[in-house]
Design goal:
Elements: H1 2-15, E1 35-41, E2 44-53, E3 62-66, H2 77-85, E4 89-93, H3 110-123, E5 129-134, H4 136-147, E6 152-158, H5 175-183, H6 187-195, H7 206-213, H8 221-237, E7 251-256, H9 270-273, H10 279-287, E8 293-298, H11 305-308, H12 310-321
Parallel strand pairs: 3-4, 3-5, 5-6, 6-7, 7-8
Antiparallel strand pairs: 1-2, 2-4
Helix pairs in contact: 3-4, 5-8, 6-7
């Protein structure tokens, strides 16, 4: 056991040398030009990737799009097209630790990611936004709204995770344990997990599997896997569900009714799995906590409404924005 622990630590020490601090996924072509913001986090130079897509006929409004745990800015392309067609400026960051941004070995927190995002908006001279946040982005969007209420005009949460406190029923895993799981990932394992996002799997959904699996070919995949492990713990250890009642911005909750996502679900028994992640009920419980909340329930829809049924998602979004 001591030898094994020493080998792991030695391996990690090599992985996180300064030459690997800016590991990033570059294999995927994003739908719009990608720019980079330089940051210094815990004395480490990092870069935050983002798309800033401006409309031909601006209406003066900006939407900030926040991605989920197993995604990056790429999967917002249809939504960005709709937003810009309707006059909205779209700001689409890859959070530090994801996509084309750096994957540093740091203490990840929703507070830090929110502060990074605020710095990006300040740099771009943007004072007010509507926040559109999916999955893990819902946790970040909630934290951002609580930290910077003066900036957020409206909040839209699309099948957010964190509607329940996972650490109260999911067994704890150390970063090293989660790292080993992340390191063993394959295209097939990513695909199998993403199949749980949809009631019926379609071949075109493999595009998002391809984007996620592009990291597997990166020479810095070990660094990426370690940041994936740390951000899993961020979700596990930093719930926001106890603070929804503090959100003052008008909030729209869009919930695909077939979603059964639970972070760490594979660590639960079948009986335990059936007791959690029931989004039809979680949506109703959550919307009542917001000071000004509206719930849109999408029947027959899973974890990613804007991918599975973009027309219905964009109809709900447009009604709320207008």
């Amino acid at each position: 056991m001591r030898l094994f622990s020493f080998q792991i630590l030695a391996c990690l020490g090599l992985l996180f040398s300064s030459t690997l601090l800016v590991a990033q996924s570059t294999a995927v072509d994003y739908p719009y030009p990608v720019q980079f913001l330089s940051l210094n986090i815990e004395s480490k130079p990092v870069r935050m990737a983002y798309m800033d897509v401006k409309p031909a006929q601006p209406n003066g409004k900006t939407v900030l799009l926040l991605h989920g745990k197993n995604f990056n800015g790429y999967y917002w392309k249809t939504v960005v097209h709709w937003l810009t067609t309707n006059g909205y400026r779209a700001i689409v960051p890859d959070q530090v630790g994801w996509g084309k941004s750096s994957h540093p070995d740091i203490h990840y927190s929703f507070h830090r990611l929110a502060a990074n995002t605020k710095h990006l908006l300040d740099t771009l001279g943007i004072r007010n936004v509507t926040v559109l946040a999916h999955s893990m982005g819902g946790m970040l969007g909630t934290r951002f709204t609580l930290m910077y209420p003066e900036m957020v005009e409206k909040l839209v949460l699309e099948n957010p995770i964190g509607l329940e406190d996972y650490k109260t029923f999911v067994p704890y895993q150390t970063p090293e344990q989660q790292f080993q799981k992340e390191k063993s990932a394959t295209f097939e394992s990513y695909q199998q997990y993403q199949k749980s996002y949809y009631p019926v799997w379609k071949p075109e959904y493999n595009d998002l599997v391809r984007v996620q699996a592009s990291d597997l070919k990166s020479p810095d995949f070990s660094t990426i896997a370690w940041s994936n492990a740390l951000t899993y713990l961020m979700i596990y250890e930093q719930p926001v569900c106890y603070e929804f009642n503090r959100v003052k911005a008008p909030t729209l909750l869009i919930i695909g009714q077939e979603d059964r996502t639970v972070v760490g679900k594979n660590l639960l028994s079948k009986t335990e799995q059936a007791q959690h992640g029931f989004y039809p009920e979680l949506g109703k419980q959550t919307v009542r906590q917001f000071q000004t909340g509206k719930l849109v329930e999408l029947d027959g829809v899973g974890h990613i409404p804007h991918i599975q049924t973009p027309e219905r998602f964009l109809k709900a979004l447009g009604d709320f924005l207008n």
